[in-house]
Amino acid sequence: MAHFSRRQFLQDTLIAAAAAAAATAGPAVLSHAAQADIAESGPNDKLGIAMIGVHGQGNNHIKEYLKRRDVEIVCVCDVDEKVGQQRVEEIAKRQKRKPRFVKDIREVCDDQSVDFVSIATPNFWHALGAIWAIQAGKDVYVEKPVSHNVSEGRRIVEAARKHGRICQMGAQCRSMKGTIDAIDYVKSGKIGEVKLARGLCYKPRRPIGPPGVFDPPAEVDYDLYLGPCAIAPVTRSRFHYDWHWQSPYGNGDLGNQGIHQMDIARWGLGVDRLSDRVSSYGG
Fold this sequence. Notes:
Strands 3-2-1-4-5-6 form a six-stranded parallel beta sheet, with helices on both faces. It contains eleven helices and six strands. It is α/β, with parallel strands linked by helices. Helix 6 (126-135) packs parallel to helix 7 and helix 8 (177-187) packs parallel to helix 11 (258-269).
C-alpha cells in the first residue's frame, strides 16, 4: 500500500475540494475526517501560499487565508514595494512565519516552499502568471476574469491539463448560499419557464476623468508591471484601480463586475456556454 504523508493528504484534500467546488458551482464540503485532519495539522503539514498582487482584492485573499490553520503565506509578490512590504508586516502579526517579499513572479515560481499561488493582479497578468506557476508545478487560484482575452484562457486550460495542476477562477457568487438558493428556486420551475435573464449592477464609481499622461508611483517597478504588455505610459491618475478602464490592462466593467452578473444570468438560464452573438450600445 502506498504511504501518504499528512501533508500530501492535506494537499490532495484541498485540491479535490477546490475541483469539486468548481465542478458543482457550490461551496466545497469536506468530510469530518478531513476537517479533523486539517484542524490538527502541524507546521510541517501546512501548504505554502504565495500571494501575487496584494493591493486590493489580493488583500482580501490574505485575510481569508489567515483564517485557516492548514495554510501559511510564505511569499508576497507585488511590483509595488510599499504595498508589498506593508502586507508582509501585516501577515507577520497574524502568523508565526514572516513571508518573504519579491517583486518578480518568476522568483515565486522558483520557490520550492510555495505549493500554490493566489493571483489578484491586473487582468493582463492573469494568464502568464497562472501558466508560469503551473509549469513550475504549483496549483493556482486566479481572480476573475481568468484571463485578459479568450485565447489566453484556453492556454491556461491547456497548461493545467498538460502539467496535471488545478487552476480555479474566483467567481465567488457561485459559492454564495443566497445565490445558490435563488438559482435552485429558479430551476425548481416555481416561477415557470425562464426565457430571459438580465444581469444588472448599480454601484457608485469615482470619476476617472479624461485620459492623460501620468508618472507611475515611485515605489512601483513599472517595467516589471508592464510585463507581457507593450510599453505604454500611465494614462489614468489613479494607478492602482483605474487600469480596469484601460484596454491594454483591463476589460472595463464588463470584465470587472459584469462578469459576475453575466455568469449568474447564464446560470439561471441553465446555459453553460458563451453567447454566439454580442451587441453593445450606450454613450
